[in-house]
Amino acid sequence: MDSQIDHCMLRIVQHIFGEDSEVLLDLLAQHGSAWSSFLTDYIHYALLQCEKQHWQSLLKSGNPNGIQHSLPFLQRRIGRLGPSKVGFPEKKQSYDLIPEPIAVLAKENFVSVMANTGVHKGRWQYEVVVGSSGVIQVGWAVAYSKFDAERGVGDTADSYSYDGNRQRSWNVNCRKYGDSWQSGDVITCGIDMDKRTISYMRNGKHLGEAFSSIARGKDCLYFPAMSLSKHEMLVINFGGHPLQYPMPQYNVLEAEPSLQLAQSEACLLWLRSLSDVFFSRSLQLQLFGSGVSTGDVEGAVLSIVQAVVVALEQLCVGEHSGAYVVQRHVMGYVESLMPASFMSHNDTSAPPCREQLPELMFFLDAVHAFMQPESTYKILHGLLMLATTWSRESSTSLLLPRHCRAVKVVTALLLHTSTRHLMVDKLLFVGVRLQSLFCYSVDEAVMQELLPEVHWRSQDARLQRGDQQLFLSRLQILHDALKSVEKLHVAALTLLLTVEPGVPYARSTRARFLDKFRNVTIKRNTGPARLFQVPILPFFHSLLETLGQLWQKELAPWQRSCIPPHVFFDNSIGLVESNRLGGDKEYLMKTFAEERTKALANKQLSYRQHCASAGPGSLRSAGSCWVADAGRGSVGTSAATSDGPESSCRMDTSMPSTSSGGEEFTVPVAVQEELRRSLRLQERDCDRQVRVQAWHRAVSFAPHRLAALLNLLHIVVNTVQASESSEAMFAFLPDYYLEVISHLSLGLADSFMIDYPVVEDESALYRSIAVFLCRHFMDARVRFTDSREQLMQTVAFYVTCPTTLAVIENVDVESREALVRSLLTPYESRVWAQNNWILVRFWKGSGFAFRFYLSPHLKTKITPKPSYSDNCMQLIKPCPSWVLQQVLAEVLSRDPAFSSRFISSLLSQLNWAFSEFIGMLQEIQNFSSRVERVFIDSRQLRICCTCFELTVSLLRVLEMVLCAGPQLFLAAPASSSAQSDVLLSMLCKLLCHVMNRVSVGSSGCFTRIVSLEIPGLDSLHHFPILTAAAGIIVALLKKDIENQEDPEYDPVATKALVSEPSFQLRSFEALLDAHDPAGVHPTAFADRLDAISAIASAPIQRPGHTRNSAAAGPAAAATAAAAATAAAEAMDVEERATELAAAQPAADTAACEDMAEIPAFSLRQHPDDVSEAELEAISRCIAYLQQFLLRPTVTPPSDESQDCVICYARRATAQFLPCRHLSCRACISQHLMTHNDCFFCTGVISSVVDSTSGDTIISRDVSVVTEPPTDMATRR
């Protein structure tokens, strides 16, 4: 070897390791010019010298625990029993155990685990990182503690724990202790066996003694123990890694590997000195003079670096000490190689470039060059785990120093190309490490210091607190503080989306990142629940900001961009596992093979276009997983922000009623004081919630972030519009594009964000979305079930929110009519419940007493939580659409056949829903009437409530249809069709059925069940269903009442209603009668008797006939006979009434006693919810029915042989051809709406004629066969 290099090597070794010439000469004599062997032996010698110094320092310190732990043959330490490596028993079915770092994930309710090492003397500690902020109890327990699903750590006399979720310390009993912890907090658990105390720290803050005078004795060996609720997680550190916040003078259960730490520290110092020699020309001149070339020096340095790195590798990959060495010394060494100004927490400048960190790049080059790949992976894994722990910890400062420290370290590592590739390929996408690294939070005390006074107001605006302008100015400080953090995020993510010059795109960091990002997101979207439930919106916003900057730099402005539709079937993006709107991908590839070939032949995909498709392809992850799951969820949780128009905290400021039975009473002073105390606690909770929402708003919904979301929405909408041009393109569109449109548009349209002027063309964007929803709401090309459901839910929200409803009302007429026609598609053989809710939303605010947000009977009811289902219309504020109601009326009038089919299906579903509801109600009544104690299944109660809500919603839709298209039910006799007669008959039958079952005066079970106030049936009440029925009554009789003075007018609706066999006037009268809950009216029977007598004795006259007509002929005889029959019937009724009069008082008394406890209902009891005009309208209807029943009528002699054998309610005047069987017109008309065959012979009916006149009633095309209705059991 060249003597010049030998001279350099010797001088460098002397400079780095010292001037021990004797050892150097001996080793040189042994190895000659074999410098590799020489360096290996000398490094070994130097490390032995470090070990010698280590033992000398331990002996001088007099620490017996340190000495015993450092000797490999000694496993025991004073005061501790157990193996040197602390852990948990083998993995059990109740929890998952992750070995490194140790983590426990509970799979069952309240799982308890205990470590395998105990302590009985001295001071000991361990740390846990809270993976999720649910119910977790952390502490110590003795070996014989018994835990189960009901009792955990701290619930027994021999165990002690701290629960930060509830801020309690537990030892059988509990007391308030400590701070409320958050996900990512570091909790230090310490036990002092000498003083018999247990204490805790949270993120370095001492919480004080939690327990004192704990039991101590020969059987009291305390083990680390913890209990977790289902899906909660903890990361535990017994000392295998450096403790983040150790308690002073406390020992860790696994003592630190002091010898390995000393040796690794020496290796890193040597590397730092070698780096100085490598880069410092002045130092080279000092050591070698000017006669040595730079190349010789660099070659000598690299030879020594290789030997040192190999020695360091052995220390960093040790089984028990490797991770500790990496996180304690290697992390510190990496930070020392970075500029001090950049690592300062006050620095907000851009991170340094690669050229500004030569020493760090030199170290990483050496690690990758001279270490095994597995060793490099372990070192980077340890660094990344420590950085993630720093990042997720809730900060005590708005500057987020530990989070910024973590991001800066990772950013510096990502500047190195090989390190960046390794982290992307194997490290960042394990679990949710990537998201956790970019997420942050602050302590509650920080927000309280920033916002000492908050601004909020109650829902009724009677209470409000704070100055809004001052609150917003303080909130701006938070916005500014977080902008610097976002700059760091964008810098790191930009490195992850780098396309290295001269590297094929497929091997670039961007391609690696997007491929991993997409694949991991797809698996997470379809796989099991995430281990860490971290808030991922900060990461998503940072990623979106980064993509936006790169997109505008490399391609074009966001708003004018879209994804080329052909990328969804040319396999340029890995979307194999994604679902498509048109169905299975293999089916689509075969069906649209020709169209796909043409599209691929016409495309020209350049590199920039490829970047356009590959870059936004990552939005698959951002859109379908994180926007869909977290974005919308966070919007929902943040919807009550403090200063938006709908942000008022919902505080019930009303005092309890001070009247009972009409008598006033005075609330006791003690009760008033307790109410004031409760109000103060409620105000304090409101203050806390406002601070939480202010943090969410600053982190997730700042104006510039909302603008970025709108830009993303622009791209997605443009892509969908580009796909609409071809059926093949649209069929191949991934389903997650609809998810992104739905969740983003709904989140951005929430009312609390209206005060943000985001972009100018926001209205045009939402109009495009509204047009797409209207045209594709029931598009047959959308075959994927989840996509159809997504469209349904999106339309449902659009017609609920006033902002988006106005957008739908302003789209073109064709789109509005397409939406309404889709909603009016008959309900048979399709999902109809959600469709019905959408129609209800059109009408809420326009119907009879249909203006409530919460049903009046629930306003004063105290319940732990609402009992109604998620689809319940009661939780929707009135937002009627007069425009869509007008469109609905036009569609109904334009196509009577289509409208009749819809109404028929609507009535059929109403019949089913109400029948199911009454059947379940009777079962519940049977259960409740038993003497023995019976528990009613909660599932049955929920189904009962759902059927009730469906019934009410169907009634409301029926009310809207009747108001919009009354001609479909009330066609004039000359133009009357069979469909209108049938629909009117079905309507009257169902209306009477509902009134008889529900009205207070009925003998059914509805009133009794309501009076029992069964928990779980809170939504059941007379008001929702009877107001809906009242609206139908008013709409049905409106025209008859207006024309009742016209002698030529035929009251079709009234005749159909009163001729219904189940019609009972008292059920209608009960809507306004509140004085007699049993429906027993003392004068009702006499009034009815007088009416019958008046009808029987009144002279019956017909047009052209007078009382003095002598030559009336057979007609006069028939009329006289009819009059005689009526008089005889009246006499029979009078005799029967006389018999019942004697028994009536007793019956009245029994009925009143039986119903004494059931409260009366009347629409008059709700003056705030039922207007005077509405009360007047229903009063006119009832009075009109009473007067109509008093009109003189003629009842011809009955001939049962001529009655319809199907219903026995009407004459059989309709004859079927060609079979010539007979039934009434109503029965056959209703039957032929869904069938073609005869009732009796099952032959095909070609036409129906009137048996008396021979006129054709119905003419049918026998080639058209409609599907029979879905089986009732299947529909249920």
From TrEMBL:
Boundaries of every B30.2/SPRY domain copy: 53-243
GO terms for biological process, alphabetical: proteolysis involved in protein catabolic process
Keyword Transcription regulation: no
SMART domains linked to this entry: RING, SPRY
GO molecular function: ubiquitin-protein transferase activity; zinc ion binding
PROSITE patterns: B302_SPRY, ZF_RING_2
Protein's recorded name: E3 ubiquitin-protein ligase RNF123
Organism: Hyalella azteca
